[in-house]
Amino acid sequence: MRAIAVSEYGATPSLMDLDRPEPGPGEILVKLVAAGVNPYDWKVAAGAMKDVVQARFPLILGQDGAGVVEEVGEGVDRYRTGDQVYGSFGAVPRGLGSYAEYAVVAADGPVATMPQKMVYSQAAAVPTASMTAYNLVERTGVEEGRTVLVCGATGGVGQAVVQLAALKGARVIATAGPDMTDRMLRLGADETVDHRAGDLFESVTEAHPDGLDIVIDMVDDERRLDELAGAVRKGGIVASTIGQANTAGLKKRGIRAVNFVNKASRELLETLAELIDRGKLTVHIDREVDLADAPAALAEIKRGGARGKLVIRL
Ligand SMILES: NC(=O)c1ccc[n+]([C@@H]2O[C@H](COP(=O)([O-])OP(=O)(O)OC[C@H]3O[C@@H](n4cnc5c(N)ncnc54)[C@H](OP(=O)(O)O)[C@@H]3O)[C@@H](O)[C@H]2O)c1
């Protein structure tokens, strides 16, 4: 099967012809139609999991995907051949991922029936970003009456956080330049702040002198996040998706801090599918590329500037 993989950590991802995986007991084999791209994918290729698990090479990249169940392993009764599913297919120790024509996943793992209202390319763009957003909103206690600043709101995770926080009834402030202001407001943000037009901390404290309740941050380093935390009232919470929250330091300042790590699950994908089918959550596909063009597209998203999700057609 055709797949985008790396021969070792740090190698340039390339198109390879690799063996189709076999579903073991309790697993399903999925013929993928589309794969969703996340920053995590290039981080894995660069070696982010090096000290965590032993990888198998060539290592196929990608977590997110959507497709059709091709084969079910022994003991699987949740799915049948032909079912349309979406989920998280990355398995570094087995060298498997979603940038491939086929992937395997445990039937009770992070895979679920696709949202009925989505086509494969849309469903493939949902799992990592929207599961992360959902868990972040829950973890930080977003609710009606709270004011939430979303930093990195224009990206995959951010656009879902904005929608889910607005759905909870919170007041949502989204970072966005002029090109993304309208979309952020349509997604449910109450206001936007241009992080490139001036000092973000100053803009936010000026507009919210009583302080913010929550900062959900996908982009800032520890120094910037420490500064932004000055805009949060005592007892408030700051969450970083990139491990940049200085938990001990912020605790001393009366602010709870979380270095958030996402947990994927079937149940969560089912919840998201329901929200999507009820019209409460959308995903914006910025661009679709063919498998052979995926390495170049991956290199581009590494440079930043995401305005939605990148999807690979398989
Ligand atoms: N911890 C976890 O479990 C977990 C889960 C999912 C994702 N993540 C991580 O979270 C990060 C975001 O993921 P993603 O999928 O949303 O990425 P993405 O789609 O690439 O989006 C990032 C967005 O942030 C914007 N941005 C960059 N610098 C900014 C700044 N200083 N202020 C405000 N906005 C800024 C970017 O636009 P511009 O470049 O044009 O500003 C882009 O729109 C990634 O590093 C990812 O690996 C972690």
TrEMBL record:
SMART domains: PKS_ER (SM00829). Pfam families: ADH_N (PF08240), ADH_zinc_N_2 (PF13602). It comes from the Bacteria. Residues 10-312 form the Enoyl reductase (ER) domain. GO terms for molecular function: oxidoreductase activity. InterPro entries: ADH-like_N, ER, GroES-like_sf, NAD(P)-bd_dom_sf, Zinc-ADH_QOR/CCCR. Signal peptide: none annotated. It comes from Actinomadura logoneensis. Keywords: NADP. This is NADP-dependent oxidoreductase.
